Structure formats: C-alpha cells, structure tokens
Amino acid sequence: MVYLQITLNIANANRAAASEIYQKYKAPFLDTITGAKSKTLLVRKEDVQVLHGFDNMENASAYLQSALFSADVVGALKPLLDAVPEVRIYQVA
What we know:
By secondary structure, the chain is an alpha+beta fold. It has helices at 15-32, 57-63, 67-77; strands at residues 2-8, 36-43, 48-54, 86-91. It is globular and about 35 Å long.
C-alpha cells in the first residue's frame, strides 16, 4: 500500500467548506482514479490532512497530475488555503 498525504493549512472558519470539498470529490476519486483504494480526511487543531491510499507509487504520483486533482480539487481548495500544501508519498514497509 502507498499513501499520498496532503497537509493543508486552512483557518478554522474555512474548515467546513474544505470538508464539503472533500465529500464532493471522494467518490469521483475512488471511482475514477487508477489504483485508488481509500481517502480519509484528518482534522487536527493545527491543520487538515487528506490521506489517499493507492495500490502503488506510480498511481499515487499520477493522481497529482490528473485533471480531477489539479483542476477540480486544487481549484476548489485554493481560496481556502493559508499556505502552499505539503505533499508526501509514503510506501508501506
């Protein structure tokens, strides 16, 4: 399993809107992105993280170049972000 972790700095006042964006794009992610296995929203006091599960590293990297991510998700989240998101990909050992 491979995890794509995206950490977002979003003000508390904008977190409900960010959660709606997550809900809107969860099913399209799972239904249309090659190798997608899971998508989880993690809300912490200091930030919001979206953890995506994939079958392999190549599919996780490819998602970052997809129209769903680059146009739809990023476009919807951009007005809510306080900083550039941190993106990391992890391979389960």
